[in-house]
Amino acid sequence: MVSFILKRLAVAIPTLLVLIVLSFVLMHAAPGGPFTRERAIPPEVLVNLNARYGLDEPLWKQIGTYLWNIVAHFDFGPSFVYPSRTVNDVIAQGFPITLTYGAISFLVAVIVGCSLGVAAAIKQNSWLDYLAVGISIGAQVLPNFVMAPILVLVFTLWLGWLPGGGWNDGQWEYLIMPVVALSTSFMASIARITRSSMLEVLAQNHIRTARAKGLPTRRILLRHALKPAMLPVISYLGPAFVTMITGSVVIDLFFSTGGIGLFFVNAALSRDYSVMMGITILIGGLTILFNLVVDILYAWIDPRIRY
Amino acid sequence: MLVEQQKMESLAGRLVEEEVKGRSPWADARRRFVRNKAAMLGLVILVFVGAFALFGPYIAAWSIDELDFMVLGQVAELGGPSIETGHYFGTDDLGRDLFARVVQGTQISLMVGLVGAAIAVIVGTLWGAIAGYVGGATDNVMMRTVDILMAIPYMFVLILLLVMFGRSIAMLFFGIGLLSWLDMSRIVRGQTLSLKNMEYIEAARATGVSGFRIILRHIVPNLLGIVAVYATLLVPLMILTESFISFLGLGVQEPLTSWGALISEGAGTMQYGTLWQLLFPLFFFVITLFGFFFVGDGLRDALDPKDR
């Protein structure tokens, strides 16, 4: 197991380095510098600015410094647009919020999705099954940026039950709609995957054996069926995590939750390259870390997998 | 002359005669597809949306950038959908005809979806087929590259690209195409690995056909089934990606528009009682995704060899 983890790390670390170098090179290849504005900046000021941000150094040295600061100090450098603010400030302000509702959405999607899928598989071709299948087909075409306006329309404008946006230190009324909007399509996907893999497992020989020797249904489902049925779900969690983090950008923008996505979009609109790169690298790092965890979890649950 | 006549007659007779031959796998698949009600419904929806995008401009009473000064400032009261004013879908917040704008949004979203999927299909198929067929170190390097690119947060890099190199449609195509072929190449590689030990490939190699030609003439045509299924499912994903970016206001720029941008505009103004601005683009977006998913699922069921 240790060598397996080490091997995965050996792939993960170069990936992260490639991401950092790639985004840096991209920024350099972009037409116009980070200080290109509508009004031209006097050349003397530009020289000073470039010196202040270290942009007058040769490219390899800039990349080296940037990389070293991130790896050694977790420092993503200053914002190019707001000189008083660093990228770290932005992350520190927005990330806890994203993490809060992101983690809740993730848990909701996994727990509700799995339960729905298992229930549908056990009671195949019952009304519950049709409901689950119906929801999972319908939710495929309801991504977060469609769910969010519909939820606000119904629960804020028509019914007046929930506030239409804001964060308010994460009070539950403010959390409900972001969580539902973010988790719906994943919940549906997880339910669909769980249902089909559970159906497949339930048709296998070891389940028939367990039934034949008279084990209680509950025990068969929980001990013998659930574990192998969860494998496809676990391998879906990696991509789901990435898409969910991406979706948080829409949530932040639409519900004004103040998470990291809001900063990303604002940075994109004001061409604040360093903030964009910082957030991209942070999320890339998280993605790689999460995929690592999923891989380890997978190898741990499935004893057939040996690397 | 007479002989000719006879010859022609017998030829005509042979043409009319029902050919007695085994059904090809493709004919089998077509039969299964036509029997699938959801897939046929999806196909009808897609034809409808395609016709809307193609012929919509001829039906629209207003052009895309014309402002209707009669409704300006009173959009909620006067700008609703009506036949008399010629605004079949109402107007947007600036008094522009929403029907014309939805038509244009449909055109652009469909185009992004189809072009993005086409790029993914071409690049992904070639990449995967070459990696799978050549094997060895080449395969290793090519698939590691795919692994690394896959771990990169797609949407963020795409937005980074769009912001840095300008938000043009060409850049959108390039960016989406650049990052969307990864899954395709993996699927194709897996399929190629199982194809490449087939006898007909061995025969081709024995007769001295070059590697590249084998890939193009013998491997790729046999991948067609799986590629077709995946491509159909890829189109809605591309549309989703583009709509996502346009919803954030980072995609296509005014005066051009797309479904995502229209949904975003409609969602921004829905509290002023102009609900049609949200519902019309949303309707076309949702039915199109449904259509593509149904057709994709139908194709998969029709072509799935496990089912036979």
Structural class designation of chain B: mainly alpha
Compressed to H and E, one letter per element, the order of chain A equals HHHHHHHHHHH
Averaged pLDDT of chain A: 81
Which segments of chain B are poorly predicted (pLDDT under 50) over 5 or more consecutive residues? none
Uncertain ranges of chain A = none
What value does the Rg of chain A take, in angstroms? 24 Å
**Overall number of strands of chain B:** 0
Largest sheet of chain B: none
Mean residue pLDDT of chain B: 81
Indicate the proportion of strand residues of chain B. Answer: under 5%
Q: State the shape of chain A.
A: flat
Give a quick rundown of the structure.
Chain A is an all-alpha fold and about 300 residues long.
Topology:
The complex is a heterodimer of chains A (307) and B (308).
Chain A: H1 2-29, H2 43-52, H3 59-73, H4 87-122, H5 127-140, H6 144-158, H7 172-202, H8 205-212, H9 217-255, H10 260-269, H11 273-301
Helix pairs in contact in A: 1-11, 4-5, 4-7, 4-9, 4-10, 4-11, 5-7, 6-7, 6-9, 7-9, 8-9, 9-10, 9-11, 10-11
Chain B: H1 2-16, H2 25-35, H3 37-59, H4 75-78, H5 98-134, H6 136-150, H7 154-165, H8 169-180, H9 182-195, H10 199-206, H11 211-247, H12 259-268, H13 276-303
What does this structure look like?
Chain A: The chain crosses the membrane at residues 99-122, 142-162, 174-193, 229-255, 275-301. Chain A: Belongs to the binding-protein-dependent transport system permease family. Chain A: Keywords: Cell membrane, Membrane, Transmembrane, Transmembrane helix, Transport. The complex is a heterodimer of chains A (307) and B (308). Chain A has 307 residues and is mainly alpha-helical. Chain A has eleven helices and no strands. In chain A, helix 6 (144-158) packs across helix 9 (217-255). Chain B is an all-alpha fold. Chain B contains 13 helices and no strands. In chain B, helix 2 (25-35) crosses helix 13 (276-303) and helix 5 (98-134) runs parallel beside helix 13 (276-303). Chain B is globular. The N and C termini of chain B lie far apart (51 Å). The model of chain B has no long low-confidence stretch (mean pLDDT 81). Chains A and B meet through helix 1, helix 6, helix 9, helix 10 and helix 11 of A and helix 6, helix 7, helix 11, helix 12 and helix 13 of B.
